[in-house]
Amino acid sequence: MCHEPARPEALKSIMMPSDEINGTVAGTMNKTPDRLDRVVAEARRNAESRERGYRERALKIYPWVCGRCTREFTRANLQQLTVHHRDHDHDNNPPDGSNWELLCVYCHDNEHSRYLESDRNAGRSSGAGSGAIATHNPFADLKSLLDRKS
Fold this sequence. Notes:
By secondary structure, the chain is mainly alpha-helical.
């Protein structure tokens, strides 16, 4: 009993059934992921090119310093300096850069965390559930105490 190695043609027919066997639906289903992959790849390319465009402009306009922690950057660590959109709209890229600020990756992450936290807290009313409002004024009688000493 001798086994012959499988021929590539035989494997192809097993792995990729023809449309005659599966009908036209199988042919359509095979095309859909390809189209989806193309759309996703194109969207990623567009986003990357848009990001490269405004990042390069922002790096030309602004000094290479984080707008929050004032950390300075050089060509060696410039990849850690990011462009933050002040209005959080990545499509709003005015030529003068008025919607951008340069932030280090840590401050940028913190800024987006604060933004997400404010979104979460937006549904809560400002006095409900936050406890009683403080009424104590520790400096209420300070003037009279200072006047007595003089």
